[in-house]
Amino acid sequence: MEIYTLTVATGTSEYSGTNNYIFVTLVGEKGESERTLLDNPGLDFCRGAVDQYKVTSPSPLGSLLLVRLEKQRYWVEDNWFCRYVTVEPPGGHKMTFPCYRWLVGDVKVEIREGTAKTLREDSSSQLVAHRKRELQDKQKTYRWVTWAPGIPRCIDAKTEADLPQDVRFENEKRSDFEHSLHYALLELSLKKLAIRFGKSWNDLDDFKRIFWKLRSPIAEYCMEHWKEDWFFGYQCLNGSNPRMIQRCKKIPENFPVTSDMVQSSMAPRTNLDKELKAGNIYLLDYAIMDGIPTNTIKGKPQYIAAPLCLLYQHPDEGLIPIAIQLEQTSGLDTPIFLPRDPPLAWLLAKMWVRHSEFQVFQLLSHLLRTHLVVEVFCVATLRQLPAVHPIYKLLAPHLRYTLEINCRGRTQLISADGIFKRVVSTGGDGLLVLAQREYKVLTYRSLQPCIDFADRGVSQLPNYFYRQHSLMLWEAIHSFVSGMINLYYQSDHDVQEDLELQAWIRDISQEGFTELPNFGLHSKLSTREELSTLLAVAIFTSTAQHAATNNGQFDWCAWVPNTPCTMRQPPPTDKDAVTMEMIMATLPDVSQSCVQMAITWHLGRAQPDAIPLGQYMEEHFTESRAVELIDRFRTELKEIEDHILSQNEGLELQYLFLLPSRIENSITI
């Protein structure tokens, strides 16, 4: 009689344990063990428990191939989360079988030993058949659907309740998510009540009346400095939308700025033409906003603009705005606003640029270019790669919670009756049109930071902390991924011959990113470098890029005049007609301001169960060489952390959004 020693690890989150029956069968190349009920004296499979059992077999099983787990209902249904199983054969070495899955209902699950293997490395017909069955089951479970035309396709789930348990929030996350939203909305409802639901604010200082508990050091700094031109420029570099700015080599024809107009903003002994040639003139162009349908809130039309903003890298003052036009077509009714104009006119022009910034960063830089892009990788990975595949193991930590948060976004934020419809000027039809426009011009190049910075001509901009930190993180991620790829693929030929990998890239390019002829991503992977870059894009986007656009949104939007979610009056056409009354009638009203503050706090706050970049709570890789690469990656991230902290030491306005310890491993909010 052969006796095998097992340990079975139960999940650590709430309700991971079970009181149902758990059976195990060991499957080897020479046969199967007895089907064994796992039952020790006392309670088994409690939350966080690691229980030990003996399993017998009348004859040697040979090399172990699979561990078959079965859950059967006892009295009431009680789901179980299994982390892993270890098996120690008679006289052999302990083997680890990662699971990290929920067993829901009366179900059988077969798990493999943890060594990552591509299809070509599996010599056992049993294991090849197991891979095939696993993928067939996953493709039935995870299906593509078109939520709306003209944007990336997504998971087929009308609400988060339709998702499989394996990709749902854990109970603590779900409770915190729902509680924090209710908390923020309740607090701001009390503020509205205290302010007696006034339709408009009386003056700019009135916005301080909603600065109660929900506040942050940067938000308070913003409240003090938001009118200053240097602070406007700083946000173009290091705010929530740091990918918009581009070098201006020639003044656009539809933006007829002359040298005389901006001479008073120039440093001594220079002019606009000289600075254009020197590479010190930059542009924000919100052409994508032109003609977008606007929202109607409580029967009142809202307004948008499509500004052009010229900026100058001043040798003493830093990056400052020097000219703003609020529409794409120049003319008598679209004046060019300048810093020497009446102060309120210049201030309102900057507000209109920041209002466009809110739309673009929330819907394009944040929602489309991180959430929806990463969802394509999520769905394709779950559909086309078995759990034993090295690329599945590499990506799994970066898929956590993304499908559920995206489902919630579609039903709660951007739906026909969602929060954007209630308070945002592009809510309703406008947000979808805006996303569709951006999706048409989305390129694979623009998702690679090293190329994106070069294409935008911003590689020399000083104090562009987002660029500096992004490139450090990109290099670390790309180096880590390349090491992993070279570990499991000895040549480019190995990449080409991996049928599961090729099915994965086809799912991404043909099913996920549909109708994008100019995207620039091929439907076949030919080299290890191509694969490494693609995986680095997926990981960078789900970690650093999402952190850069999401984590500071409360900081930059809490002081509502700095980044207003909507505008209630049309853009000004006469500089001399701008008054404080006009500004207050234009900015979001009390109710809209309160919701903006609540939602950006809810979505931008640090998550209590966050797993930082490079930390892996689930140990999918068991091989020593892979673990060494992970350790090296963590060491490099620690060096980046130390560099960023040292760089920010003593700065009054610190840029810490890309500290590795503050970047989540996946898009969870």
Task: Please explain how this structure is put together.
There is one protein chain. The chain is of the alpha+beta class. The chain has helices spanning 125-141, 171-194, 217-225, 229-238, 259-262, 272-278, 343-384, 390-395, 402-413, 419-423, 429-441, 449-456, 465-488, 492-497, 499-512, 528-550, 553-557, 580-586, 590-604, 624-648; strands at residues 2-10, 21-28, 31-32, 36-37, 50-57, 64-72, 80-88, 95-103, 107-112, 144-145, 154-155, 246-247, 281-285, 296-297, 300-301, 308-314, 318-325, 336-337. It has a domain at 2-113: Sandwich (Lipoxygenase-1), CATH 2.60.60.20. The protein has 20 helices and 18 strands. Strands 2, 3, 4, 6 and 9 form a 5-stranded antiparallel sheet that branches. The chain has a 5-stranded antiparallel sheet with strand order 12-13-16-17-18. Strands 5-1-7-8 form a 4-stranded antiparallel sheet, with no helix packed on it. It is elongated and about 95 Å long. The chain starts with a strand and ends in a 21-residue tail after the last helix. 47% of the residues are buried. Residues 117-669 form the Lipoxygenase domain. Fe cation binds at residues 366, 371, 546, 669. It is found in: Cytoplasm. Its cofactor is Fe cation.
